[in-house]
């Protein structure tokens, strides 16, 4: 839908060339785990692709820069017009022969259904050894997804968050307080114990995730 080589992203690509891939990609990817960012998944996914595509530098990326890229640059480009309010759950559950794993739906409607159908089809491979080889990377990706949901404290069937028009995301857990400019970084042990049914307890009350600076 949107080409990362498009001329409208030339300035942003130039900026990203000076940025460290690992730290910048981690910050952008972390926003994709925040329910309140769900309305802006398209621009966040595009930004993630741009970061990986222009990986050349060593400079660290600040939280303010992430906000500027998402709101002041991508938020004023045509990609914004393609963003719709989310109509599906933010975190769903994939039921597989080996158990349940939470996944982030992203921009795909009923994504868990199609993943389950793919697993069901691939599980029909008759040779056990070949079947295990085929399913191994799928199991690994699902395990990673479930671990991320665990780390940020999101239970299955978690709904998308709500955010004001044009805003990336607002402060969570501090109603009435001043906005911060911090990007959430999960730490091991902050979420509920993993449940093989994918039914975590959810995020601790009052825990700030991602917030943005108020417009001038």
List the helices and strands and how they pair.
Layout: H1 10-16, H2 21-31, H3 41-53, H4 63-73, E1 91-96, E2 99-104, H5 111-122, H6 128-151
Antiparallel strand pairs: 1-2
Helix pairs in contact: 2-3
Please describe what this structure looks like.
With 216 residues, this protein is mainly alpha-helical. It has a domain at 91-151. The chain has six helices and two strands; from the N terminus they run ααααββαα. The chain has helices at 10-16, 21-31, 41-53, 63-73, 111-122, 128-151, and strands spanning 91-96, 99-104. A hairpin with a 2-residue loop joins β1 and β2. α2 (21-31) packs antiparallel against α3. The model is unreliable at 169-216 (pLDDT under 50).
List descriptors.
globular, mainly alpha, two-stranded antiparallel ribbon, 216 residues, single chain, 6% strand
């Amino acid at each position: 839908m949107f080409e990362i080589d498009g001329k409208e992203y030339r300035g942003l690509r130039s900026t990203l060339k000076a940025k460290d891939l690992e730290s910048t990609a981690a910050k952008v990817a972390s926003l994709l785990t925040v329910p309140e960012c769900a309305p802006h998944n398209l621009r966040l996914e595009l930004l993630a692709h741009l970061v990986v595509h222009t990986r050349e530098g060593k400079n660290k990326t600040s939280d303010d820069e992430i906000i500027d890229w998402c709101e002041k640059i991508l938020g004023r480009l045509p990609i914004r017009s393609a963003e719709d309010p989310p109509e599906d759950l933010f975190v769903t559950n994939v039921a597989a022969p080996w158990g349940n794993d939470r996944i982030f739906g992203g921009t795909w409607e009923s994504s868990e259904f199609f993943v389950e159908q793919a697993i069901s089809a691939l599980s029909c491979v008759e040779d056990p050894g070949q079947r295990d080889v085929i399913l191994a990377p799928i199991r690994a990706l699902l395990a990673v997804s479930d671990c991320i949901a665990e780390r940020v404290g999101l239970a299955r069937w978690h709904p998308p968050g709500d955010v004001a028009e044009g805003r990336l995301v607002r402060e969570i857990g501090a109603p009435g307080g001043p906005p911060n400019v911090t990007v959430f970084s999960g730490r091991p042990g902050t979420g509920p114990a993993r449940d093989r049914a994918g039914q975590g307890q959810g995020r601790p009350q009052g825990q700030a995730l991602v917030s943005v600076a108020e417009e001038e």
